[in-house]
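Technical note accompanying the year-one report. For the benefit of new consortium partners, we illustrate the data format agreed upon in the data management plan: each record pairs a sequence with a structure-token string. No post-processing was applied to the example shown here.
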Amino acid sequence: MNDTVDDPVDGRLAFATTEATDISVLPKRLVRRPHILQIVAGDVAPRTIPLTQDSMSVGRSNEADIRIMTADLSRMHMRIDRTRRGFKCFDMDSRNGVFVNEVRVHSAVLRDGDLIQLGNVALMYHEGS
């Protein structure tokens, strides 16, 4: 408990000495955010997709894990795999290709803020914690 006492020299209040105690400011459990794809442009925008599986396919097909219905996408357009260094995208021999930050790629390791273009659909990749 902090007690105050009057300082006899100038009349100001001064704090009496007390013992220090440790106060924990860490939460009891850490909240983890998933990696996500955020559709930022195209017919189906806006939409947020959490990347919860180790491998996810993107395309128009009913079998695609992430189904995006637009004529510019192939039935199985792209695959996203979890690796030791994060997520990596792969073009699945799509008709219109996969572009990461305006560069056509066959595969690319994704970094926070990367823009992935699939036909008329733009997705932004966000790293989780």
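Partners are asked to follow this layout when depositing records. The two ends are 39 Å apart (CA to CA).
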